[in-house]
Amino acid sequence: xxxxxxxxxxxxxxxxxxxxxxxxxxxxxxxxxxxxxxxxxxxxxxxxxxxxxxxxxxxxxxxxxxxxxxxxxxxxxxxxxxxxxxxxxxxxxxxxxxxxxxxxxxxxxxxxxxxxxxxxxxxxxxxxxxxxxxxxxxxxxxxxxxxxxxxxxxxxxxxxxxxxxxxxxxxxxxxxxxxxxxxxxxxxxxxxxxxxxxxxxxxxxxxxxxxxxxxxxxxxxxxxxxxxxxxxxxxxxxxxxxxxxxxxxxxxxxxxxxxxxxxxxxxxxxxxxxxxxxxxxxxxxxxxxxxxxxxxxxxxxxxxxxxxxxxxxxxxxxxxxxxxxxxxxxxxxxxxxxxxxxxxxxxxxxxxxxxxxxxxxxxxxxxxxxxxxxxxxxxxxxxxxxxxxxxxxxxxxxxxxxxxxxxxxxxxxxxxxxxxxxxxxxxxxxxxxxxxxxx
Length: 439
Description:
By secondary structure, the chain is mainly beta.
């Protein structure tokens, strides 16, 4: 039975175990800036990066054996004077897409190029600004790349790869000039874009319906400043996970929350935890496909870590040396955790999938029976819990606040089929399991 992100289970000894990281392939190279990485479902690994010397030349490479090899036939002229790159991979089309930024006038702007064994022509959005930073996401179903660029102002661009067009669309309604505290994702289940940002004194999540941005949550923090935010789609679900750093006047703190895109629970964000460590900074997040907890890279002082939090307790799974810098944190389909360390020499590292499976050894909080069910579902828990049941389209069908040992849930009126039941526990976490109704 599947667990959503909020089931952050851990055995008691897990927080004492540090897993050994291993290097993936040989060193990528020196004097490298802005690397990006993707891992396909078949676990091919691609890198893009800028070689600072001599001419900020972009490279797009594949790991072959232990070597990193440039993809053949690259249009090297257009790859010159590149300052930033981001990679995306479409499993549907088995195509690699690279978004990159060129700074040399008159070519300054945002470009997209694709590779499926042959290189496509580039799509471009030229800008009078000589230096642009951007974030991008891929809408795989419609073969569209969305790019948020910070010059001029905030520009939001839609690169339609099938029709080979570039259009400007309304940018997210942020009240901040900072680029770090804004992030956005594309939800393949409902087709919408979601962004986390700072607006009018609060951190909020907004949704783009193709025409306008709409506010879908209340504030997830009300401090003076939202420092960073990272959004992740929880695999095979309609939930978004948000990890963020905020300043509560005593120092930087880490928060986590999640949002059900179906709007169940009156669009209320479900808090995971607020972390007691001050001075923390976020290096990136990724969700394990094994048990769907968030792993994040973070720094405290001069040192970097990989870990996650459970009920306010820091669960450390790797501790890197002080000068290492964690970027591009991501999981493979088999659950291995990869990241790039780009200090003086760029390298790729990974942790084995065992670290994630260790987190699922504890007994699950949510237990109900029978499943499939026809009339009632029962639990052995004596304390009352809030619950919601919704169908596979995300429509709410049952809601209550008193599920416990002496008060089962009647499901007799539900039609045969597959559903999901979400239980809100006393510690603020939520567990979600599949429920089958069969009369």
